[in-house]
Design goal:
heterotrimer, A mainly alpha, B mainly alpha, C mainly alpha, A: mainly alpha, two-stranded antiparallel ribbon, 7 strands, globular, C: globular
């Protein structure tokens, strides 16, 4: 296993080398394709290492690699265990597709030289975080990931909204890192140093556990986009180039969840069931709010970003259940919940990468992200349309695709939650279940809307008229991820058997007790509880389609006549008479938006003799932004203004401030010495 | 015996569901009709308890509920609505959806409250108490969230239904109590009737909103 | 043997579905004093549609042409998995109730997309309303499954049948609430009155009919057949969960199957008459009352799980 860790580190080092190469060769046209090609190969290699780690059961508990860099008394520790292996697979499946896409896409950006050198750094940061075995390396990797992605968000900084998004992102990233630093501080309070091995032995009291979970939730939750810390996400993710958006949404949020799992399930296992209940309800609320926000948007990439918020909520719900079951001494169910959550992590990485890459292809060829101005692309972009349709169906949790399997597992786990003795879980589980089911149904509505408006109907603006499918590299990336969505859905048992080692290392039981695995049946806890088989459903479904087609073709006539659309006799050639995205969402906006987002519709009707268009305007307010962020921004502004005065002090006064700070620290140290 | 318990639960749950039905309706006539059905269900519950507890005086309770609450009161209310020309729709202070959500939360609350207190009681009593308490709370909720005075009266009487449901479920409850409850309903009915006349005379409307502005609350 | 019964069940779904719809229409006609078409009229309609020339809108894409096949097959697959007359079916372990709901959801997904494909305003209005109805009906359905899984300890319909037949549930308040909620969901999902009017062609009140407005010929036949199968599915589901008497269990032999078939026929007929009476007695509601109606179903299902804690120590 040591060799696996070493190989992964070498791959990361290679990624780091790509950055100066890209800068040196910035005049060459081919450099972009070269860098992305190299990144693709390295990603495939890293994903392969992850798969090997998952398949080889002896990986658990092996020694790591220590490099003599970093802090002198600590050095840098790296380790490769089942959890890192799983997330290496998740991350590098996403980066493989995005890099492959980048071969075709990276050179055609507005400012390719702002993106290509930073991109490998981003990949390196993502992977480094997963291999870290001490807090220092973890935070270095985390910051690498944050700062490089921030630079990528700024790639198109001529647009003021991108600058604003980047600033919001930076502030939230700093807040998150700060909280994670605090969390590691809590873990290391009684231990010897900041290595993860030392932290695992630490025993915390209740107050410290509370502090730890709170800090982790803010730190990792803000990165993952948990409501109410999500507001930066739909601004920042769409602002980056599409393949980077795909990685930020599909992969970086997963690394954030990895941080949560690493701390709450591995480094410290004391979090009680109350935290599980909190995570469960928070996850359910995040899921519903995220997808409702998505339904109100008209920017295709922003819809996808909000849908990421929803899926993070779903995973969080699974993790919360796992915490609650673990604390109640139900290891088999905890392992099931964890496996369900991880399955969804894997699925979401695949489908969100696919969807963002598809959206990128649309945006690249039409120069339009507003779905109200798109339409009819299914005829012009067949490959993009089919793959985007697969992604939409998968993320709407439709069988037999992958999104359904993980939501099914999470629902099955949730149905077991009332067996816990706590009243909060008994009453919380139905509420969480209703919210989860609501979010799944709303996701279907959201993606019917996204796919239907962009790809179906007639062109709504001239921008779409000469849209074309992207080049072969980008098509390959789309087909790769779409195939992954299909495979993960059709072969669920193969996937869960690979997750077994991870639950063994985190919960202490493998999945054989949680998921009865007689191929191809997937049955949680016991076969009598209900089972599912993607393979059989696909086979019988195909058979039925075949029978239907044969009967219909054989029995009926085959005559076809093309004619103008009937539309109840309202012959209308203008594409503007089609249903728009906003009108499609109107019933749902009325039902949910009126109270949640204070959605208001205003109709301006001209007088009968006036020659003016009638206008309908919709106003939607984000309550989280109004209630939490706007006051926070005002407070920071106020504080910054105050602190600004310090800038104009004389040198002597600056020195005085430093002296006073030093004095305070020394006095504190002295007091502590006296007390002990 | 088991069947007896289950049937009692079912009838109790029917009363509770009709409590939700009261919250769901948007038209006054439908509210009054739902109330009549709820009262009839209550009568059924009382009669069933009389049968399984073998205590004939509960039949009287059932008869009172059936005659007064399921027939006379709805009839009188309908008459009032027609006579006073009251607006035919229910004016809500809070939407139907949110009200029902709060209603479900109230049921959960009453279950949590009742279960530990009655840990030693039999399953029958426990479930009955929890259901009855939910009906009472739903009645209160209706009084809070509906503006129109008629729906408030109905809410108040739904609350009474809950009390009677609790009373008939407990073994050995003397008849006097039920009589007094039934009379209190009647008294309340008369009081509200007069109340309506007074409000209408004064403000030309039955919306309590006007009463508030009169008292200077708005 | 289970493979034979499975094939029989799949064929039976398709064979009986038009009859069920026909009986409902006939009952409704009789109740309002018309003579009504014969109950086998839907068969004739389907055959007529199959033989008619297909008129395809100029803007229709491949999705529009593939959707009828997908919609019908997914619905049919779901219907074949509901234990109608026996629990001894080949596909029983492949899908539980959650999968069943999701299969129907998938069928709706493609139908809704087909509504948007031609780019007409009526298609859009249908899709928009259908997705709103689904977004509340589907969670309600899943919460009913939640309640059943708490009561019977399983989400597989066949195991629920076993449990109920073994007397494991009895007269349970939650079961009653789940029944009412399931009826409400079934009404909404099948586009029956008061949510949608299957007979309407009044433009502004259509939901399902607006979505499929552009379909003709064999495509329309498939779509019509799919909605008939879906109605049968819901009636069978109600029958198998709340009135499983007569359903043959494994090991009961051919006599059991015959009893199962006979009782299934009786239940279907009863369901058809009940639906006809209900639809005649009630008026369609406004579109923006749907949310209250379906929200009510959802809350009722949540209530069913909550009330469970009073009587049983779950």
């Amino acid at each position: 296993m040591k060799t696996l860790a070493a190989q992964a580190l070498i791959a990361i080092a290679l990624l780091l080398v790509l950055c100066p190469l890209a800068i040196l060769g910035h005049r060459l046209k081919a450099i972009h394709a070269l860098v992305y090609g190299a990144a693709t190969l390295i990603s495939i290699h890293l994903a392969g290492l992850g798969v090997m780690g998952l398949l080889d059961g002896d990986a658990i508990g092996s020694a790591g690699v220590t490099l003599p860099i970093g802090l002198p008394w600590l050095r840098a520790h790296f380790r490769f265990d089942a959890l890192s292996a799983l997330f290496l697979v998740v991350v590098n499946l996403g980066t493989t597709a995005a890099s492959l896409y980048g071969i075709g896409y990276g050179g055609h950006l507005a400012h390719p030289n702002r993106v290509t050198p930073i991109y490998p750094l981003f990949l390196a940061g993502l992977n480094l975080t997963l291999l870290a075995d001490d807090a220092f390396v973890f935070l270095i990797g985390w910051e690498f990931m944050s700062v490089s992605s921030w630079l990528l968000v700024l790639a198109d900084h001529e647009k003021p909204e991108n600058r604003e998004a980047a600033t919001t992102y930076l502030v939230m990233a700093v807040l998150g890192s700060f909280c994670l630093l605090g969390a590691f501080g809590v873990l290391a309070m009684n231990g010897e140093d900041y290595s993860f091995a030392a932290m695992r032995g630490a025993v915390l009291d209740t107050v410290e556990v509370t502090l730890l979970v709170g800090l982790v939730l803010i730190g990792a939750g803000s990165k993952a986009g948990v409501v109410p810390l999500h507001a930066w996400l739909p601004l920042a993710h769409p602002a980056a180039p599409s393949h980077v958006s795909a990685l930020m949404s599909g992969v970086m949020t997963k690394v954030a969840l990895y941080g949560l799992v690493r701390i709450l399930f591995d480094l410290n296992r004391q979090a009680d069931w109350e935290w599980g209940a909190l995570l469960m309800l928070l996850g359910a609320a995040t899921a519903v709010l995220g997808i409702l926000y998505a339904l109100m948007q008209t920017d295709i990439k922003r819809i996808l970003a909000y849908s990421t918020v929803e899926n993070v909520g779903v995973v969080l719900l699974g993790l919360g259940l796992a915490l609650a079951f673990r604390a109640s001494n139900e290891p088999a169910l905890a392992a099931l919940a964890l496996a369900a959550g991880f399955y969804h992590v894997l699925n979401h990485a695949a489908m969100k990468t696919l969807l963002f890459l598809g959206a990128g292809a649309v945006a690249a060829t039409t120069a339009e992200r507003n779905i109200e101005r798109l339409g009819g692309l299914i005829r012009l972009m067949p490959v993009t349309a089919v793959t985007f349709l697969i992604g939409s169906a998968a993320i709407s949790a439709l069988p037999p695709l992958n999104g359904f399997v993980s939501e099914w597992l999470i629902l099955q786990t949730l149905f077991k939650a009332p067996s816990l003795p706590m009243w909060t879980m008994k009453f919380g589980a139905p509420v969480a279940g209703a919210l989860l089911a609501l979010s799944a149904a709303l996701a279907a509505a959201c993606f019917v809307r996204a796919f239907g408006i962009v790809f179906l109907g007639r062109a709504r603006s001239p921008a779409t008229l000469d849209a074309r499918d992207p080049d072969p590299w980008m098509r390959a990336a789309l087909i790769l991820t779409a195939g992954l969505c299909l495979l993960l859905g059709i072969l669920p048992v193969t996937v869960t058997s690979m997750l077994s080692d991870v639950s063994q290392s985190l919960i202490g039981v493998d999945l054989s007790e949680s998921i009865i695995q007689g191929w191809p049946w997937l049955a949680p806890v016991s076969a009598a509880r209900g089972s599912y088989s993607g393979t059989v459903v696909v086979a019988s479904g195909l058979l039925m389609i075949l029978v239907t087609a044969i009967v219909i073709k054989g029995f009926g006539t085959r005559k076809i006549r093309r004619a103008p659309a009937w539309d109840c006799g309202h012959v209308e050639d203008n594409p503007a008479t089609q249903y728009t995205a906003s009108s499609l969402a109107q019933p749902l906006r009325r039902v949910f938006g009126t109270s949640l987002f204070a959605a208001r519709e205003q109709v301006e009707m001209p007088m009968p003799d006036e020659i003016a268009p009638a206008r309908l305007s919709v106003r939607v307010i984000d309550p989280v932004w109004q209630g939490l962020y706007a006051p926070a921004i005002r407070a920071v502004d106020w504080l910054a203004n105050r602190i600004n005065r310090l800038q104009s002090l004389t040198v002597r006064r600056h020195l005085l401030l430093m002296f006073l700070t030093l004095m305070v620290m020394l006095v504190l140290a002295a007091i502590r010495r006296m007390l002990t | 015996m088991n069947f007896h318990y289950s049937a009692a639960h079912l009838i109790g749950a029917l009363v509770l569901l009709l409590g939700f039905q009261l919250l769901y309706q948007r038209r006054i006539a439908a509210v009054i009709r739902s109330f009549a059905v709820q009262a009839a269900a209550l009568a059924l519950a009382a009669a069933w308890q009389a049968y399984i507890q073998d205590s004939p005086h509960l039949y009287i309770t059932a008869a009172i509920a059936l005659v007064f609450k399921a027939m006379i009161v709805p009839f009188a209310l309908n008459w009032l609505v027609v006579r006073l020309g009251i607006h035919k729709t229910v004016e809500t202070a809070l939407g139907i959806g949110p009200t029902m959500m709060i209603g479900v939360a109230l049921v959960a609350l009453s279950i949590v409250l009742v279960l530990p207190v009655t840990q030693n009681a039999s399953a029958l009593t426990r479930e009955n108490l929890a259901l009855a308490m939910s009906v009472v709370l739903l009645g209160l909720l209706m009084m809070i969230t509906r503006r129109n005075a008629v729906s408030q009266v109905v809410g108040f009487m739904a609350l009474e239904n809950g009390l009677i449901l609790a009373a008939v479920g407990v073994k050995g409850m003397p008849l006097v109590v039920e009589m007094s409850i039934a009379f209190s309903v009647l008294v309340a009915m008369i009081l509200f009737g007069i109340f309506f006349y007074r409000i209408r005379e004064r403000f030309d409307s039955l919306d309590l909103h006007y009463l508030e502005s009169f008292r200077g609350e708005r | 043997m289970s493979a034979v019964w499975q094939i029989l069940q799949a064929l039976l779904c398709v064979a009986l579905a038009p009859l069920l719809t026909g009986i409902v229409r006939w009952v409704k006609a009789r109740l309002v004093g018309r003579r009504g078409a014969s109950p086998i009229q839907p068969y004739r309609d389907l055959i007529r549609l199959l033989r008619k020339e297909l008129v395809l809108a100029q803007d229709a894409s491949w999705l529009f042409r593939a959707a009828p096949y997908l919609v019908f097959s997914l619905t049919w697959l779901a219907a074949a998995m509901v234990p109608a007359f026996t629990t001894n079916l080949l596909l029983i372990p492949a899908a539980d109730l959650i999968t069943l709901v999701a299969l129907l959801g998938a069928a709706r997904f493609f139908l809704a997309l087909a509504g948007l494909d031609v780019g007409t305003s009526f298609g859009g209005i249908g899709t928009s309303r259908e997705m709103m109805i689904a977004s509340l009906a589907e969670p309600a359905m899943l919460m009913i499954v939640f309640t059943l899984s708490l009561l019977a300890g399983t989400t597989a319909p066949a195991r629920i049948v076993d449990h109920v037949l073994a007397g494991g549930i009895g007269l349970e308040v939650s079961m009653g609430m789940a029944l009412i909620a399931l009826i409400l969901v079934a009404i909404a999902e099948n586009g029956r009155i008061p949510i949608d009017n299957p007979a309407t062609h009044l433009e502004l009140t259509m939901v399902h009919e607006a979505m499929v407005l552009e379909y003709s010929g064999r495509h329309l036949a498939l779509i019509e057949a799919a909605s008939m199968v879906r109605l049968l599915l819901y009636v069978s589901l109600l029958a198998c969960i709340f009135a499983p008497w007569g359903i043959s269990q494994s090991g009961k032999g051919e006599i059991g199957i015959l009893i199962g078939l006979a009782s299934y026929g009786a239940k279907i007929a009863l369901g058809a008459v009940a639906l006809g009476v209900f639809e005649t007695a009630i008026a369609k509601m406004r579109v923006f009352r749907y949310a209250d109606f379906l929200g009510g179903a959802l809350l009722l299902a949540v209530l069913a799980t909550i009330v469970l804690y009073v009587s049983e120590a779950v």
